[in-house]
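Hey team,

Filing this mostly as a record. A colleague (T.K.) asked me to run one chain through the structure pipeline before their review meeting, and I want the input and output archived in the tracker in case anyone asks later how it was produced. No errors, nothing strange. Just documentation.

Input sequence:
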Amino acid sequence: MRESLERIGRFDPVRARERLTLGFSSAHTRHIVDEGERVGLVVAMALPLRGGALRDSAANRFYVRHGFRLVGRGEFDNDYVRSPASPPGS
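Output structure:
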């Protein structure tokens, strides 16, 4: 994401750290590992997943492809939400 933000002159390291800190809970966080490499994380509290992407970013296709709904558009960003999966047997 940093690369995309830098491309449009919007990367701010202080803001990036603040956003991560406000939404981070180590007790509920699980790493996403691909071929032994950490590639992301997910906070597993069975709440709707929210995400955002720069309007012209390829990340928008990722969100749509993985079941997220577009719920807002800002000057620079698109906002997405995905409902949690139903627990087995529900």
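Quick notes for T.K.: Residues 48 and 84 are 5 Å apart (CA to CA). The helical segments are 2-7, 13-23, 59-65.
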